[in-house]
Design goal:
About 75% of the residues lie in helices and about 0% in strands. It has about 450 residues and is mostly helical.
Length: about 450
């Protein structure tokens, strides 16, 4: 669930606590709509101010609550005290507690004609009530309670839009967040209708400024993804990249989306575009790029990136990457380049018998059994073999091809002596075949 503005929201609410004071003063010093507080309420204001200015909020709230209990419940004094109480709680940072007096004050003002609160004050109060509902919803651990708060926030925000002459990008951002988080309360079953509304509010926000905030685009992408409109998501990301090519996060998201959309070539091009800006150059990024080219059959490109990357350190110097480089050259029908790659790998990993085994296989494929034999023996001497019985069996096979039957027999017996070799019918048949050849050779000798 996206939750980008909860901290800025708190700052906004705290600032609002200070701004309400000006509204309150105006209501006292310049009565409007023929409403004014009675003398008893006016008398407690200096005491309240003294406590509030000293940040003794507990004392300030006690003064307000005591006066609230004395005035008629539907009076202008009650509405004014509710307003001052909201200001105090917001300044104190007790945002949750500010909701109830804010609700009561608005309800009381709305019940009168004309309303107790001036239009500007009403707009501000409605706006921040919606913000408070949203913050509480985001923090709630109870999905049902959060849903109720989201609905209240939605209604308050819709009312604010009707009351205000012109919306703002920040207001649209809050409304977008409200609707998006409400719609995705259950990420497995998002509410598509509310998501569409969130997308509409995002679009409004984006058109209010020549340089919209990135977060509005992020919410737009999130809505589009939830609605399954991934092609439009990539368009938004491409736009963001034009605006902020220095953002590695946008590049990686775009590449991932192209891969998800089964467009690997676009993903590869995106990664290379990012690298031209000095981004996505970590070994894992280069490995991913190489993997894409290899899977596309672009072995030349993959080999070039591997070879230069292994030398420069931009690709992880591990055995798998050296083996992949060798495999690229095999696919390109450059067997000796493949062998050279494996030999270079043995310089980096001199104790790896598995690399020696790979070299031996490559030589034997070329009909160079003598060279293969040398590297097979080296593989066994070094050890570190994934499947020892296979190496011994291969040695037995090559040695028998070279008519070195004693060596072949010894290797075949070693192969069968391993648990995997003992369970492998092919290895057992190889041993039996070599034994039969030796027996036949001995029988022929005895006849001479």
């Amino acid at each position: 669930m996206l939750n980008f503005i909860s901290s800025p929201l708190r700052s906004t609410l705290a600032c609002f606590g200070a701004s309400l004071l000006a509204v309150t003063v105006l209501a006292q010093s310049t009565p409007v709509r023929d409403y004014s507080p009675d003398d008893s309420t006016a008398e407690i204001i200096p005491k309240y101010r003294e406590a509030a200015d000293a940040m003794n909020y507990a004392a300030a709230l006690t003064i307000l609550d005591a006066q609230l209990a004395k005035v008629p419940a539907d009076s202008y004094d009650a509405a004014l005290i509710y307003q001052i109480k909201v200001q105090t709680l917001l300044q104190k940072g007790d945002f949750s507690a500010a909701i109830q007096p804010l609700e009561k004050g608005l309800a009381l003002s709305d019940s009168k004609t004309p309303t107790y609160y001036e239009d500007r004050a009403t707009r501000e109060l409605v706006y921040f009530l919606s913000s408070l509902y949203l913050q509480e919803a985001l923090q709630s651990k109870n999905p049902k309670a959060a849903a109720v708060l989201y609905e209240k926030a939605d209604k308050s925000m819709a009312r604010w839009l009707k009351l205000t002459p012109k919306t703002t990008p920040d207001a649209q951002l809050i409304y977008t967040q409200l609707l998006y988080n409400w719609a995705t309360q259950n990420p497995d079953q998002p509410n598509l209708d509310i998501l569409k509304r969130a997308l509409e509010q995002t679009e409004i926000g984006l058109h209010l400024s020549s340089h919209p905030k990135d977060v509005l685009y992020v919410f737009k992408m999130a809505c589009l993804q939830q609605l399954g409109r991934n092609e439009e998501v990539t368009e938004v990301l491409e736009l963001l990249i034009k605006m902020k090519p220095e953002s590695s996060n946008y590049w990686s998201q775009l590449a991932a989306l192209y891969l998800q959309a089964e467009q690997p070539l676009r993903a590869a091009i995106t990664m290379e575009r990012a690298q031209s800006h000095g981004l996505m150059q970590a070994p894992k990024d280069n490995n991913n790029l190489i993997g894409i080219y290899f899977n596309l059959g672009q072995y030349e490109q993959a080999a070039e990136l591997l070879e230069t990357g292994l030398k420069s350190g931009r690709v992880e110097n591990d055995i798998k990457n050296w083996e992949l480089l060798a495999l690229c050259y095999q696919q390109l029908e450059r067997p000796f380049k493949s062998i050279d790659a494996l030999k270079n790998a043995t310089k980096a990993f001199p104790k790896s018998g598995q690399l020696e085994f790979a070299i031996a296989q490559a030589y034997n494929t070329l009909g160079k059994s003598e060279e293969a034999l040398v590297h097979l023996q080296s593989a066994i001497a070094k050890g570190d073999l994934a499947k020892p019985h296979q190496v011994y069996g291969y040695l037995a096979y090559v040695a028998s091809e070279l008519k070195k039957f004693d060596l072949a027999l010894s290797a075949a017996k070693q192969a069968v002596s391993t648990p995997a070799g003992a369970a492998d019918t092919q290895t057992q048949n190889l041993l039996k075949g070599i034994e039969d050849i030796i027996k036949d050779r001995e029988a022929k000798k005895n006849k001479l």
